[in-house]
Structure formats: C-alpha cells, structure tokens
Write a structure and sequence with these properties.
This protein is α/β, with parallel strands linked by helices and 529 residues long. Helix content is 24%, strand content 17%. The strands form four sheets. The chain has a nine-stranded mixed sheet with strand order 3-2-1-4-7-9-8-10-11, sandwiched between helices. Helix 1 crosses helix 2. It starts with 33 loop residues before the first helix and ends with a strand.
Length: 529
C-alpha cells in the first residue's frame, strides 16, 4: 500500500496501491481523487471535532467505487482511536469490523473497494488486514435488478426495460444500485449510521447511445434522498449542482437539503475538472455537509480555477429562489419586487415548428437555388439555412407568419461563474414572417411588428438579461425554463443596461457584479436570414 494506508498494515504487508493504477469508469460514475476525499473529511472534522476519536461512530459509503472514502476514514480512525484503543491490532480490528461499511455499485467496484480497505478482495482470507466474517466483509454488493412496471419503467429509478432490462442485456451492467432500489434502505445493514458519505453515480442513460447526455436522467438525487431517509447525524456528498437551480425535477432534493435548513456548508466548483481532472461532468459540481442537528444559513464557498471566488452565508429556509451569494440575492430581490411576469412566457416550448435538430439529414432538401415567396426558410444547426415548400404541413406553426427571435439552444461552457466573463447565450437571429427553425434553436415571440422584435433583441443583448438567464442555466443546453428568472419588462422602448439598472435601482456594487460576470455584446446587431 501507499504511505497513506501504511498505518493499517504491518510493515511486511505493504504493496502497491490499486488507486494509483486504475482508470476512471465514465463521466457518470467518477472515481474520487484522494485529495478531494480528504477535503471532505476535513470539513466533517472541522465541524464535528473528535468524530474520528469516538469508537462508537459508524460510517457508510452507499456508492463504493474504489473504496477511497472508507480507506481514508479508516486511516483517520486508526490515528484518532490511539487513546481509546491503544493496541494497534485491536484498534484495526475494531475499525474494520464495527465502524466502516460500504455498498458497492458493481461487482467490480466491490472487489476494488475490498482490496482498498482490507488489502485483499477476500476480506476473510489470510491476506486481509483483518480476517472478517465472510468474504465480502462490510463491503457488500447484490445483483438485484430493476423492478419494472407494466409500462417498462423501473419503480425506483429512471431505467427503462427496453434499454436496461436483464433479458436484453445478458452479461452487461444493468445499473440497479442496491441503495436506491429499496423503500427501506436502513434494512440493508439493519443498523443506524452516524455519517453517510460518498460520490454516487450521477446519471442513468435512457437512450440507446450512452454518449448522448441529452438522453440521460439524474440519479444522484435518489442516493442523497435515501441517505437522508436513514437519518444519519451527518451527510457528506459530492454531486452535480443542478439541484440548486430552479429545475422542478430537483425540488424534492432542494427542499431536503436547503429549505429544511440543515445544510451547513457547500463548496461549489463551477468547472468540474477542478475536482475530476480526467473526467468531463457537465456543469458545476459541489460537495456539502448536511447536519441533522443544525438549523440556519448555509455557508457557500464558490471556487473557480482553484481560487476562491466568493464566500456567502444565505438562509434558504423561506426562499423561493436560490441565489449563490449576498449580492446575487440582493439583485434577485430587487428584480422580483417589481412583479414582472417571467420572460419564459415569451419563449416557445421545445421544437416550435415540430422539426427535429437533424431534420434536413433525414428529409429531402428543397433546391437551395430556388428561394422565393413560394418557399419557407428554416434556420437549423450551425446557422445553416434550408428551405421547405410554403404548403409544408408543420405540426406547429403559431409564429410562422410573424416576427420572432431565434436563439441557438446550446453554447458550450458559457455558464455564470464558470467562464468569467461569459456570453451566456449565442447571438440571436431576427426571424421574419415566413421563416421557421428546427429544434436546434429556441423561438422568442412571436411579435406583430419588426420594431417590437428589435426592441426584444436589444433587451436580450443586455448584460442584465444574460445575467438573469445565467442564474438558471446549468448546462450548455437551454430550454424555456432557463429564462424563468428573467423579468419580461415592457417592450415599449429600446432598453439598454443603464436604463435597466435604473429601473431596478441597482447599486454600483451590484452593477459591477453583473458586468464582471457577463461580457459586453454591443457587436450583436440583430442578424436576419
């Protein structure tokens, strides 16, 4: 073993640390670096002094991959219990038999975790650090499968029978994680845990292409909710941070973590590579400490490129929105006090004309040399323009013969606090009557006049608009919901940032805050096609 685990083995039993030789699994099931695990454990120890000096405390990792959480906990306990249990052999046995437990996510990770914790994949074998009762020791794995209903949907997770059912995937992983495929997680070990800690799987794919992240559903929230259901004293998890957005799908998790007031500390990293250098996790990630005995404000640390960007203390218990620091909270309060309707009411739902993103790859294109009033222009991927006959039977066509804005749906890493400054959105196009778009773009409007459309374009171009959009933008892809926090101010004039700042009575500090985070886009002129 490496020096970090030497204390758990006699000198003549040390070998190679498996964690130095293995590769990552996938962007959804990410191995946690040892330094990150220790930052999380430092946070726990700072807020609960003496927790690693108490021989009665119990720890559970419900999503073991390499066993790194269990190993580092055992290492700290081995040092912390010197006074309570002076004999090293007795101390080692007590820790491994009675204090650290794990549930592996696959059979392979169960073997790796046992090798990491017990120094042998057979916890009862002669090479194990402690000869446990049974080969798996306290790190278990059960190949349980999904519980599909008559519609082919799993009762416990977003899995679908046709893609993940055992009969169609013999010999392949089915992602039926034991910890979340039960209504009574406390019965897995039939015991109560003081600390539950881990890095759960983030998503489960619901499409045939595992690389298509648009065809995946979050699953980390179920691990966190089941952990809270077990009523530990402390919960530490590292997960994507989409749950802190306005997304309705994360409302239950948001309520449990912050609206109940038990979230003591949150460290957010706007670039996931800061935590996982070898993996690309879309959007921000963060680790946090939930304390069942705590009631109050959450202390939030936001990190960017390994530097601390901000520190804030926010009480979310009566919140309807979820700002990330005090200045952001002040801006949102001032905006909401005006009572404007949400700009999302002007944004059409997905596929405003019923055309898929790849429509022109699967359908015959109209001769591009013939573009006149008998044809409809269609804006698609990468601003490509194609045409369709004027009598094409669109399944949706509300805005077809009116003015509108088209905003590209995706823009790489342009997220608030991740890239500073950020554009947030791509340059919009002004759509004329008789023009449409594929699913690759969002439609804003429609408007009865070109002048009204241009006023909307001027508003969209402002830093203020794009800042408010960025508060809800948690990935490169946008939807109608992304604009939920943007106020739909009256389009009775051409707005610019200065007039909007005055409208909402923003202070110089709040204005600087916005302008530091969002780029100036004066070069956007309102292109037509």
């Amino acid at each position: 073993m490496s020096g970090e685990l030497d204390i758990l083995l006699p000198a003549n039993r040390r070998g190679t640390d498996i964690l130095e030789t293995i590769a990552n699994l996938s962007s959804d099931e990410v191995f946690t670096p040892p330094w990150l695990v220790n930052e999380m454990l430092d946070m726990l120890e700072d807020n609960c002094p003496g927790i690693f000096s108490d021989p009665s405390k119990t720890f559970l990792d419900p999503a073991c991959k390499t066993g790194i959480f269990l190993r580092e906990i055992a290492r700290r306990l081995f040092e912390g219990l010197k006074e309570a249990i002076p004999n090293p052999e007795e101390r080692r046995t007590h820790i491994l038999e009675r204090q650290v437990y794990g549930i592996a996510i696959t059979e392979l990770t169960a073997l790796m975790s046992r090798r990491t914790l017990y120094c042998s994949r057979d916890a009862s074998g002669k090479y194990s650090a402690v000869q446990m009762c049974g080969e798996e020791g306290n790190v278990r794995f059960r190949d349980i499968g999904h519980t599909f209903d008559k519609h082919g949907k799993c009762h416990f997770c977003p899995a679908r029978r046709e893609l993940l059912g055992r009969e169609e995937r013999i010999g392949k992983e089915v992602y039926a994680y034991e910890f979340i495929h039960t209504d009574i997680p406390e019965e897995i070990f039939h015991m109560k845990f003081d600390v539950i800690i881990g890095n759960p799987p983030y998503h489960i794919h619901t499409g045939s292409d595992p690389e298509n992240h648009q065809k995946s559903r979050p699953i980390y929230d179920r691990f966190v909710l089941n952990a809270i259901r077990m009523r530990p004293h402390y919960l530490l998890m590292i997960t994507p941070m989409k749950w802190l957005s306005q997304e309705p799908s994360t409302e239950t998790l948001r309520n449990q973590l912050i609206k109940a007031g038990h979230l003591r500390i949150l460290h957010e990293f706007n670039d996931s590579h800061q935590c996982f250098p070898d993996n690309s996790v879309e959007g921000a990630v963060g680790y946090y400490l939930w304390d069942s005995s705590y009631q109050g404000a959450t202390t939030i640390f936001r990190h960017n490129e390994n530097d601390l960007v901000s520190k804030a203390s926010i009480d979310y218990r009566d919140a309807t929105t979820f700002p990330k620091d005090e200045i952001c909270a002040s801006i949102m309060t001032k905006v909401q006090s005006k009572g404007y309707e949400s700009f999302s009411s002007l944004v059409a739902s997905r596929k405003p004309y019923g055309l898929e993103s790849n429509f022109f790859k699967t359908h015959h294109k109209t001769n591009e040399s013939v573009r006149n009033n008998a044809f409809i222009k269609v804006l698609g991927q990468d601003s490509s323009v194609n045409t369709l006959p004027a009598d094409y039977p669109f399944s949706k066509s509300e805005g077809l013969w009116r003015y509108k804005l088209f905003i590209p749906k995706a823009l790489g890493s342009e997220l608030l606090w991740r890239k500073i400054p950020s554009k947030i959105i791509s340059e919009p196009w002004i759509g004329m009557p008789g023009q449409a778009c594929t699913e690759s773009l969002l439609e804003v409007g429609p408007f009865d006049s070109e002048e009204m459309c241009k006023r909307c374009f001027a508003y969209v171009r402002t830093r203020f608009f794009r800042f408010m959009t960025g508060l809800s933008k948690v990935s490169q892809n946008m939807s109608k919901k992304t604009f939920s926090l943007v106020p739909a101010i009256p389009l009775d004039r051409k707005w610019d940032d200065q007039s909007i700042y005055s409208l909402f009575e923003l202070s110089s500090a709040e204005i600087s805050y916005i302008e530091n985070l969002v780029t100036n886009q004066d070069e956007w002129v309102g292109r037509r096609f």
